[in-house]
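Structure tokens please, single chain.
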Amino acid sequence: MAELTHKRVVKIAIPIVLSNATVPVLGAVDTGVVGQLGQAVPIGAVGIGAVIVSLFYWFFGFLRMGTTGLTGQALGAGDRREVSALLMRALLIGAVAGLAIIVFQAALFWAAFRLSPASPEVEAMARAYMQIRVWS
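Here you go.
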């Protein structure tokens, strides 16, 4: 086994850090673009919509984090069959969770806006924004 050095850890960690940073950055970029309209309602809608979508994304962080650790253990043990099984399980759980979000998005959005109320105009635009993000 190769020696564990800071350089090797950083080489592995940088893509993970960049991946984690892209979700909130997308919402910030969307807010900046909509901010060019100079109207408060679209800015508020994208802002609250981005926060809610990011929250849904982070709810499923367990899948990514858990799969990564277990896959590392299986790979380190040389168990290719378990690596394949972990991949298939993670893909299945991800597909089912994604389908559930698509099917139940109206109920999820309703619940999110009960916890974080907004004006009717902001809520309508935020729902449209979140639907775009869910389908993209």
